[in-house]
Prior knowledge:
Layout: H1 31-52, H2 63-73, H3 80-91
Helix pairs in contact: 1-2, 1-3
Amino acid sequence: MAVVATPLPLPLSSLTVPQLRKRPLPAGQPRAWYESHNRRLKALRLATALLDTGVYHPVQASDERIRALAPLIGVHPPSDTTCRLVRSLMRR
């Protein structure tokens, strides 16, 4: 019988923020589009960081846990709406 290794959660000190070259957003969009776009990017960063720390289910991702992780990855604390979006991304 083969032994299956379960992945261990990464320690918070090993989280890295990728240094991607930023491109300007397209001009001429309504302000709501930019807010929604930036909210989705932030939620995706937070969801990825939660997965890296071993939080695999949305039930485990409370608002407090998400907000505590935000400064560790270099983003401002998220709003309630962003926290809900993080959990919905984790469901998928």
